[in-house]
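Reopening: structure tokens for the acetyl coenzyme *A complex, inputs below.
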Amino acid sequence: MDANSHSPKGMPEAAVKYRAYPQINIPDRTWPSKTITKAPIWCSVDLRDGNQALVDPMGHDRKERMFHLLVDMGFKEIEIGFPSASQTDFDFARWCIEHGSVPDDVSLQVLVQCRPELITRTFEALDGANKPIVHFYNSTSELQRRVVFAKDVKGIKEIAVDAAKMITDMAAKAGGGYRFEYSPESFTGTELDVALEICNAVIEVVKPTPDNKLIINLPSTVEMATPNIYADQIEWMCRNLDNRENLIISLHPHNDRGTGIAAAELALMAGADRVEGTLFGNGERTGNVDVVTMALNMFTQGVDPELDCSNIERMKEVFEYSNQMAIGERHPYVGELVYTAFSGSHQDAINKGMKAAKVANHPVWEVPYLPIDPQDVGRTYEAIIRINSQSGKGGIAYIMQQDYGLNLPRNLQVEYREEIQRITDEEGKELPSRRIYEHFIERYVTQSGARIRFVDHHTFADPEHKGQRVVAAEITDNGEVKRIEGRGNGPIDGFINALSIYLGIPMSVEDYSEHSLQHGSNASAISYVETSYPGGKLFGAGINTNIVAASLEAIVSAANRVLDIQAKKG
Ligand SMILES: CC(=O)SCCNC(=O)CCNC(=O)[C@H](O)C(C)(C)COP(=O)(O)OP(=O)(O)OC[C@H]1O[C@@H](n2cnc3c(N)ncnc32)[C@H](O)[C@@H]1OP(=O)(O)O
Ligand SMILES: CC(C)C(=O)C(=O)O
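Re-run output (same inputs, fresh job):
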């Protein structure tokens, strides 16, 4: 069978065209039982690996804006570019050193290939920098040895060793003060014993010390296997590298299989000390590991991520400006929709969870479907619940409460949900919070075009029945003033009896509640009355500065709705 022979489904035969990644022989692996208990050393590679993958690489302004953000977030190591590759990157390195006000505890890092002319230029770019990191690399993978460099392992090792010698010599001649990082690039395509041999040869040249540790960066340049494999590789390297105590083992995961974050997390458990990545995962192909997601994953496990992500909107804005790329709506922690529930059962659980959290007043965050409090990253609760045809009464109740201060009684939630469901089904799209509120007010309170209006009332003791009150009220019926009268044990009872007699429809009050209102200029209270009538039960609502008037308006509201139903039935 040739590599292009097709399976019945149309794709080539997988087993013919692709090979499974081999297992790592480390049966006594320890990482599966470890947990991440502290933040790694973070290194941002937004300005280099991120930049080299952009359609239009960053000019100075875009780099500078990103650089300030990275410093403000607390990155202590920032790879600012590849100064020997372009004038823009060279000039940016000079700007950082001469005008960048780089804090003393922040190291500038630059990348360079193991090529003498590029190394020389890199040192020119770094002249005067405070403890910069010279990051040199060459590809060590079996494939690149064969097809790119046409060299055997010995030849590839020589490239790395020669560069290490040149770099350490130049640093010594410049009076020291440099730090070094070596990457066996395409590490995940390199046999472990080869990667080890080459790294050990570099370590031998650099001779790291406790005061100047060498960063050995083990990149998943292309993510080729499941995350456990990367963890195995890192644990194996950590065990076998020479002079481990004077090394900082660094990860540089890419995301080709969509598991870059998982790979980085498992590899940290496997003993790595440092992570190189980018904000929200920009970078070659499917991107570098997303350090914001990694950091916030730690945060939600109770671990201080040592990166300040409290203003995620600024991070998003700078990301979009500097990279000229948009962030997806479902992107973890930052996407526009990641704190929003449309579906009814999620909304109900969030609504109840938020209420329970308020009552419990306990510092531990526990709200269903929200793994993080949106406010911790500078987002608000505004968008937590949005309404469409998938939504339920809990969500509608949340919106009415949160946005407009209306506490709909449970049965009214059920009733109003049907109304909203009808609209969302008809329109087939999201119903904004404002419309949900305005529809409620029109349906239950304003009732433009309604037949009956409440005008006024007074009550007095019933001369014929002890303990009873007479309610004498003024209403309008299609604009005509009418006086109605009824008896009951209070104004509500008396008024509904009066209205029942007047309309010839027996009605009674099943449930009543009211609360004060903050929303709206003159309103001070809203009352909800559930009314039963021969066809069933329904609610009315009234808003008035006088609580009794609000209740009587609510009865009129319910009566108008009964009249409507009867009119529709003919
Ligand atoms: C996985 C990564 O992300 S690594 C980072 C990669 N980043 C970039 O490529 C962005 C910046 N790069 C550039 O602007 C350019 O590639 C430059 C300026 C560095 C070099 O440009 P050029 O010399 O014109 O060309 P090019 O990149 O094609 O050079 C490839 C040559 O370098 C060699 N080479 C590639 N990487 C390395 C390395 N790390 N160490 C030593 N030699 C290397 C190749 O084998 C090839 O050699 P050949 O000319 O004998 O065939
Ligand atoms: C230079 C190296 C670290 C790199 O960018 C990669 O392997 O992806």
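The longest strand covers residues 452-461. The radius of gyration is 35 Å. Marking as resolved unless the reporter disagrees.
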